[in-house]
Amino acid sequence: MSGRGKGGKVKGKSKSRSSRAGLQFPVGRIHRLLRKGNYAERVGAGAPVYLAAVLEYLAAEVLELAGNAAQEDAPVASAWPSCGNVRPGKRIGKLAIRNDEELNKLLSGVTIAQGGVLPNIQAVLLPKKSQKTPGGKA
């Protein structure tokens, strides 16, 4: 019976690769998608963990900016009692991304559905400010 190792080892409860890496995004699903997507012939074990970490960081960054923007634009709580919880939508997310320099550069070619457009008025279209003379006569 030599060469068979010690029998009777009890396996503990299985732990997902996401929890081992301390991530919320699914490492196993990303690994499967990388294998099925014909990106490479073989996919290393660390690649999906790294990609999941990058995607989770970007999602957290966008959600933080959108949450801050939604908090600033939120109506007064006393006037709108049902609006206690502020939840950022697509429009707020787009405004947050486009107002952030780095995220705007990263996502410059991305179209956000139902995002609308950035409010922008050209300077030449704005009314000219009238200048008053100090003597009171124009």
Automatic annotation (TrEMBL):
Region (Disordered): 1-21
Intracellular or extracellular location(s): Chromosome; Nucleus
Domain Core Histone H2A/H2B/H3: residue ranges: 11-72
A GO MF term: structural constituent of chromatin
Xref: Gene3D superfamilies: Histone, subunit A (1.10.20.10)
Cited Pfam families: Histone, Histone_H2A_C
GO terms under cellular component: nucleosome; nucleus
Broad class of the protein's primary localization: nucleus
Superkingdom: Eukaryota
Annotated Histone H2A C-terminal domain residues: 101-133
Keyword annotations from UniProtKB, A to Z: Chromosome, DNA-binding, Nucleosome core, Nucleus
Compositionally biased tracts (Basic residues): 1-18
Subunit structure of this chain's protein: The nucleosome is a histone octamer containing two molecules each of H2A, H2B, H3 and H4 assembled in one H3-H4 heterotetramer and two H2A-H2B heterodimers. The octamer wraps approximately 147 bp of DNA.
Purpose of the protein: Core component of nucleosome. Nucleosomes wrap and compact DNA into chromatin, limiting DNA accessibility to the cellular machineries which require DNA as a template. Histones thereby play a central role in transcription regulation, DNA repair, DNA replication and chromosomal stability. DNA accessibility is regulated via a complex set of post-translational modifications of histones, also called histone code, and nucleosome remodeling.
Family as reported in the entry's similarity comment: Belongs to the histone H2A family.
Listed name of the protein: Histone H2A
Native species: Biomphalaria glabrata (Bloodfluke planorb)
Phylogenetic classification of the source organism: Eukaryota, Metazoa, Spiralia, Lophotrochozoa, Mollusca
